[in-house]
């Protein structure tokens, strides 16, 4: 079975395969949630190297505790909470190391309301999941326009996708409409 075939599996199916030692299932599960795992440290204001460290640490923790995940249908929630905790720990460690920690001050400052942050991250993951279901060209276009850390010019998009520069805008509009349709079918209205 190829990696592309694994993408069709649900989270519980992937977890069962992971627990049986299937490396491609593990890779698929990590790829499915990589953006979620990176988005949380970014919300905390961490730089790329810290986000990478947190990503790796969460992956190790998942590997160690996958058999303990109580509800395999909510792996995204487990990942988000674990990532969140690691961000709080790293923030506190950085404050201690820099000597800026105030004993009366909480180490967390990206949001006063953690529930709102959690809801926002879950919504972002739902959008990422929906983008994964789009045709390859639309998926690539949307990822270049909205998911890249560095902005990508229409000229570069034109070259990568092999379409005229003047077609990028209309293609973008069509792809966004396809995405809206997928989100509506999932009950997510923007």
Can you walk me through this structure?
This protein is mainly α and 190 residues long. 72% of the residues lie in helices and 0% in strands. It contains 9 helices and no strands. α3 crosses α4 and α5 packs across α6 (114-132). The chain is globular, with a radius of gyration of 19 Å.
| Percent in strands | under 5%
Binned, the helix content reads over 70%
Radius of gyration: 19 Å
The rough form would be described as globular
Count of helical regions: 9
What's the count of strands? Answer: 0
Tell me, rounded to a whole number, the average pLDDT: 83
Report how far apart the termini are: 36 Å
- Main β-sheet description: none
Instruction: Write down the secondary-structure element order.
Output: HHHHHHHHH
- The oligomerization state is single chain
Name the structural class.
mainly alpha
Low-confidence stretches: 102-112
Question: Can you give me a brief rundown of this structure?
Answer:
The chain has 190 residues and is mainly α. Helix content is 72%, strand content 0%.
Comma- or semicolon-separated keywords:
single chain, mainly alpha, 9 helices, 72% helix, globular
Detail the topology: elements first, then pairings.
Blueprint: H1 3-6, H2 11-19, H3 23-43, H4 48-65, H5 75-98, H6 114-132, H7 136-147, H8 154-161, H9 165-185
């Amino acid at each position: 079975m190829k990696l592309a075939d694994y993408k069709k599996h649900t989270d519980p199916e992937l977890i069962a395969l992971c627990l049986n030692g299937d490396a491609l299932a593990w890779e698929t599960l990590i790829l499915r949630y990589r953006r979620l795992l990176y988005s949380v440290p970014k919300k905390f204001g961490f730089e790329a190297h810290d986000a990478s460290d947190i990503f790796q640490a969460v992956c190790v923790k998942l590997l160690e505790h996958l058999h303990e995940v109580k509800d395999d249908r909510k792996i995204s929630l487990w990942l988000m909470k674990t990532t969140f905790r690691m961000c709080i720990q790293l923030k506190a460690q950085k404050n201690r190391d820099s000597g800026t920690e105030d004993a009366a001050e909480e180490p967390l400052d990206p949001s006063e309301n953690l529930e709102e942050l959690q809801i926002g991250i879950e919504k972002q993951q739902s959008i990422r999941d929906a983008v994964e279901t789009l045709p390859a060209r639309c998926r690539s276009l949307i990822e270049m326009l909205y998911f890249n850390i560095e902005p990508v010019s229409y000229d570069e998009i034109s070259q990568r996708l092999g379409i005229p520069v003047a077609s990028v805008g209309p293609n973008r509009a069509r792809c966004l409409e396809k995405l809206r349709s997928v989100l509506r079918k999932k009950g997510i209205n923007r």
